Amino acid sequence: MTIVTTPCNEEDLVSEKEENVQEAVEERQDVYEPEIIEEPEQQAVEENDTDELAAVRQQCEEANDKLLRMAADFENYKKRMERDRAKSLKYAEENLLKELLPAVDNLERAIVQGRKADNNSELLQGVELTFKGLIATLEKFEVTPLESLGQPFDPNFHEALAMDHSDEVAENHVLQEFEKGYQYKDKLLRPAKVVVSKGAAD
Questions:
Q1: Domain 146-202 class?
Q2: For 122, how many CA atoms within 13 A lie in the half-sphere containing its CB?
Q3: Which of 176, 157, 154 is nearest to 165 (CA)?
Q4: How far apart are CA 3 and CA 68, in angstroms?
Q5: Tens of pLDDT along 57-84?
Q6: For 15-29, 106-120, 135-149, 186-200, which range has the lowest pLDDT when averaged over its residues?
Q7: Nearest 5°: CA angle at 42, between 36 and 43?
Q8: 192 close to 180: Cβ distance less than 8 angstroms
Q9: Where are the domains of the chain?
């Protein structure tokens, strides 16, 4: 029996092998085809994310600054209210004490007129006791009279009603006092009404 063999061409074998490899690659591509993002599009996405993050950070900073300002304003408001409250308590009796001053003035005038009339009656003595008691009460509330006669004129404490010449009182000094001034604690309760000296007449 004679066996006939077909001669094997090396080029045919290589070609067949390449075809098999190509078919295998195509099958793999059919199974999985990854999505390819082109580089310019990816950069655009990253830039957009960066811009959004920067915008969010800016909004957070603005909100934080606003909260800090609100907190500072509220703290200042609290301090102002505390100062006003303390001031109100400190001078709570101011209006009442000011209303008592005309009564003090009238008692003082009555005493002056009674002494001028050389009247030592029990009525005058009673008026003097009442006056002293009222002055003592005012002092308990830290109300003190201003010493004005002979003092330099000060518009912060004196109200000038007139000016007159004087050989005894220097110029721009208080010559006469029509109504006594009073101070309440560290605050002027009522200015003194005075006559101011022009100095000696020519």
A1: mainly beta
A2: 0
A3: 176
A4: 102
A5: 888 888 888 888 888 888 888 888 888 7
A6: 15-29
A7: 150
A8: yes
A9: 49-90, 93-141, 146-202
Q: So what's the pLDDT on residue 80?
A: 86
Round to whole Å and give the CA distance between 180 and 101. Answer: 9
Which residues, including other chains, have CB under 8 Å from residue 157's CB and lie 6 or more apart?
Answer: 146, 148, 181, 183, 188, 191, 192
> What are 98-123's pLDDT values in tens digits?
999 999 999 999 998 888 877 678 88
Measured CA to CA, the distance from residue 158 to residue 141 in angstroms comes to: 22
Token pair 């409250």: residue: 85
Scanning the structure block, which residue is given the tokens 């005075």? 194
Q: If pLDDT is split at 50, 70 and 90, which confidence band does 4 have? A: very low
For 3-34, give one letter per residue: b (16+ CB within 10 A) or e: eeeeeeeeeeeeeeeeeeeeeeeeeeeeeeee
- How far is residue 64 CA from its own chain's centroid? 21
| Cβ(182)–Cβ(190) below 8 Å | yes
User: Beta partners for 165?
Assistant: 199
Q: Which residues contact 172 (CB under 8 A, 6 or more apart)?
A: 152, 153, 196, 197, 199
